[in-house]
Every structure is written in structure tokens, then in C-alpha cells.
């Protein structure tokens, strides 16, 4: 089971089973990077993976060499898209394969009718195939194959389950695509950001964020999502235990020792429940412990109340993140340089602070880049500018006289105009510039 604990600076995600944990901060950069990611390659790769193992029309096995590289490629892509996938990618891929396989079967047996429904409902037939697809990801004791089989049976053969309505819904009428759920999640999250928080959406500007959320919900009528909330003022267990992890630990080096000490103190204080605080206040013999506890809390306890939710998929996590953003009245817009969303405090800001490979923030390279973009559309100007820089460098280093440089500039500019007017072929212009 996984949990996410939110406060007004971000969230901590914690998977109990694997003890994996990650944190996000108040910039929400993980979320913004995620919605900008192109996930369509996932569909192609998983489609390739499945069709290398099984013929997706006849569902007979194919005898190909190992294609497990595709799975690690998929894993890499997922991990690059959001930290959630770093910890949950195996599960996510297993679900993507199972759901894709079920959709393919339903499509073939109910829409195309190239396969008999009874054949696909034969448990051995089904398990043989899904096992081949899932085998690189399965661990001893996993029950995924059967789970997907029952899911399929419930969908395709609802009578079996004595569901009153024996009507089969959502039969695919188009060739199903792999990773449909993850793509859908990304789309829904993008739409939420765009309709609720993006300030460039001018029609919605006069509304408050909750009003915008209302408009969003009425348009999309998204499926209702329930999430379990755990009531506690204490941080996640790991948050306390893992005092060695600098990202999430207490700010004091002596944190670990202190923690042990504080547990002893609280053991004493827990007897307070058996005393009559209402009439007598805190017992005198506990005053020292109480003082220690409050001093400790002052240094180490969080000074924000946070909320903890059970998380079963990325959609739930990001939905909650967006709700926390709405509650904090956060506004966003797309950076004019990198095109990704970022958080704005001031409406005049148009570039974000993300850094590129040369460690320059968009806010510094943005204005320069828009000139470059203009140049890219203008091949002649681009090669001219490059040649100009080379010649100018020669002139600066004294390899070219002012006179020579001046003449070159004059001729180059004249040729540039000709090239842009298509009076001079661009390749001829390029050759001339090289001289
Ligand atoms: Zn940017």
C-alpha cells in the first residue's frame, strides 16, 4: 500500500511494501514536467512487445528471440516521466499489459468476431497467453494472470457473475492501444491544469479557482474518484523512522538520538491519560518530561498540519496535488521558452527557471531563443548569421582587416537579400558564405 502526505509545500509519497519514498516540493515541477512528456512512444513499444510474442489477430505464439529489452525501454520512459513511476513502474507495466491483452481479446471476439468468445474464456487458453506476456515481470506468488482472467470474464461474460444486466459495455470498436490508461491519466491531468490553474485561459479569468474547477467538472464529468484519507497529526511512519535520509529527516544532526530520547519521554507522558488533567492539570512529576516534549516539538515537529491519503494510482496522486494547488491559490502558465508549465507569483513573468544542459535558466535564454526560433524558420538568415559570427571572429583576432570585413559584410548582406527573395539558390549562398 502507498501513501501520500500533503502539506502546503508539497507531498511525500511512501510505499509501505517496498519502503520507497520520494518527495516533491512547492514548485510542482514533477507534475509540470510530467504533463509535458510525450508518452505516445509507450504505446508503440508495448504494442511491439506484445506482437513479438503473440500474433494479435490469431493469438498464436510467435517464436522470436527475447524482446525483454523493450520492457526496460518502457521502464526508462516511465521513470523519466514522473518519480511515481520510479517506484511503481513494474505494477504499471503489468497492468498495461493485462488491460491491453483483455482489450485485444474483446476486440477480436466481440467486434471483429475473428475469434470465438468461448475460446477466449477458456481459462487455460487465456492463462497460457497472458503468462507468456507477463513472465519477465512476475515474481513467485503473483496472481496477476488469474486476476486479469477474472476481470476479463466479468466483463465479457457478466451472466456468469449473475449481474442482472447481462449487457456487455465498452466493447472496443477500434484496434485497442497499449498504455491507454496512462495516456488517459496524462490527458485528464493536463486538462485540469489548463482549465483550473492556467492564467492564459482568458475566458476563465474572472472566476475563482473553485469556480473554474466547477466548470471543468461540468465539462468533463470525469469519473468519480474515491481516496482513503488517514487521520493523524503524525507524519508518515517513515518520515519519523528514517532520520538518516537528509531529504526528509529532521534538520538536526542529533535527530536520531533525540528521537530515541523523545520516545522514552513520550512513554512517560502517555500515562497522562490515567490522570485527572481536567481538575488537576499536568501532574508535577511529569512536568520535566512535558517540558522536554514541548522543547523537542518546537525543534523537530512539523509546524503545518498535513493530510495523508492512500494512493493506488498516479491519477489519484496528481488529482490530490492539483486540489492542494487550488487550495493554495496557485496560478500557472506555460514558459515561453521551454513550453512547460510553471508557477507564477507575478503575471508579468513569462519565462520559468528551469535550466537547460548549459545550466542557463529559461528566464535568461528565453528572449535570445525566440530570436533563434525566428531564425530557424529562415534558413538563409541562419547560415548568414553563422558565417557572420565566423568572419567577425576572424576580424577580432586580426586575421581579417576592417576593410576586408566591411566588404564581406556588404556582399554577404546583398546575397542574403537575394537568397531570401529566392533569386539566389540557398545552396549557392551557403557555398559562397563558406569561402
Ligand atoms: Zn522554461
How would you summarize what this structure contains?
By secondary structure, the protein is an alpha+beta fold. It has 18 helices and seven strands. α8 runs antiparallel to α9 (about 210-220) and α8 runs parallel beside α14 (about 315-325).
Describe the protein.
- This protein is α+β, with helices and mostly antiparallel strands and 435 residues long.
- Among the domains are: 40-178; 249-300, no CATH class; 378-434.
- Helix content is 55%, strand content 7%.
- The chain is built from 18 helices and 7 strands.
- It has helices at 29-36, 40-53, 68-81, 83-112, 117-121, 123-134, 144-156, 180-197, 209-220, 237-241, 255-269, 277-280, 287-300, 314-327, 362-376, 379-396, 402-420, 426-434; strands spanning 2-7, 10-15, 20-23, 229-230, 307-311, 331-334, 341-344.
- The strands form 2 sheets. Strands 3-2-1-5-4 form a 5-stranded antiparallel β-sheet, with helices on one face. Strands 6-7 form a two-stranded antiparallel ribbon.
- A hairpin with a 2-residue loop joins strand 1 and strand 2 (10-15).
- The protein is extended, with a radius of gyration of 30 Å.
- It starts with a strand and ends with a helix.
- Residues 242-255 have low confidence and may be disordered.
Ends: how far apart? 67 Å
What is the overall silhouette?
extended
Main beta sheet: 5 strands, antiparallel
User: How would you spell out the order of helices and strands?
Assistant: EEEHHHHHHHHHEHHHHEHEEHHHH
Percent strand equals: 5-15%
Order of strands in the sheet with the most strands?
A: 3-2-1-5-4
Point out poorly predicted stretches. 242-255
Helicity, as a percent range? 40-55%
* Rg from alpha-carbon coordinates: 30 Å
Q: How many helical stretches?
A: 18
